[in-house]
Each structure stands twice: as C-alpha cells, then as structure tokens.
Predict the structure.
Amino acid sequence: MTLMTRTDDEYWILDPEEVQCLASAPRMTIVDRLAADGPMSVDDLARVIGMKQTAVYHHIHKLVAVGLVRASERRLLPGARKPQILYATPAPRMRMAAALGRNELRHGVVRCAGAVLRQADRDFAEGFSFDPIHDGPYRNHGFLHLIGRPNLEKLEKINAHLAAIHELLWQPDDQDGRPIALSWAMAPVSDDTNPKSKEGTLR
C-alpha cells in the first residue's frame, strides 16, 4: 500500500483544502474524537468537547464540505420528534504524515502543527480538573521536551517506537478506559555550535 492509498481503515489527508481546514484546533479535535469514539451527533460533540452547539455546527459544516467528516446515520431519541444526524470520519485512522513531504502543503502543515500544539496546551491544563491523575506505569498526564543527537540507527528506533504508540492508540479501546490526548512534535533544530566570538578560552 502506498501513502496515497485510502482504505476503509486509513484516510490520508493530502488535499490542500483538507489540510487548510484542519489548521484549527477545534476542527482537529472534532475529527480526532469522531475517529476515536465513532459516530456522534452535534449534541454529543458539544458535550464531550465542551463547546457550544452553534460552534460545533459551524465546524462540522466546514469539515463536511471538504470530506473529512460525513453524515453516517440517524438516531431518534425517546420523545424526540426529529432524528439526530450522527457524524463520522471516513476512516478510523486519519493520517497526515505524508503531507509533510509535499512542498505545496508546507504552509498548511505548519498551521496544522500549530493547531495541534495549541490544543495540547488546552488539554494539559484541563487535565488537572480530572481525577484521578495517574503516575508510574499508569501515567496519564505529563509532558516532555528533549534535544538529542540521534544517529540514523537511533532515529529509526525512535520512529519505530512512535509508530507502535500510534498503533496502540488506534486499536479499538475498552469503553471503560478514560480518554487521553497525546500530542507530539519533532523537528530538526539548529546545529550551529560555533561560538559567536573567539575571544577568550575555555578553562
């Protein structure tokens, strides 16, 4: 399977309009929630995300317009006159990794990464309001920022571990488990270690 292939299980986000649409933390959160938890109504999403229904409608409309979300079924609640529309993602695995290699998508990808990190900021702060916060082997709250100099062999291992984490989170979850949000960013940084001034010596 090539990175371009879309299947029932995987949907590769490569269209410029799709990438542009996801440069929004709320829209990215809606897509992630639907991919993780399955079809939901606007009411469901508003309750889970903590957003007003009118705002959810606004974002759903934009996501449907570019094909990242679709109406999947209808649900009639007891006592209701009209059925609710349930929305879903085209596949449970919504992937954007291949977009990083497209020069024409670079600006949109940078904005999407910014949206991910803004949402991570909100998620981390909100996480303190939920009990219990686990530590040790069951840790569900934390952060990390490291700079290292991995060679190609180590970099391959790092990416293999990240892929394994993705796979664990993509697997169908036990409904008894508490939802967690995992965000990560990796980027090459400056390698200019030369001193700006040659005056003085190290002792």
The chain has a mean pLDDT of 89. Residues 10-131 form a domain with the Arc Repressor Mutant, subunit A fold (CATH 1.10.10.10). Residues 106-127 form the longest helix (22 residues).
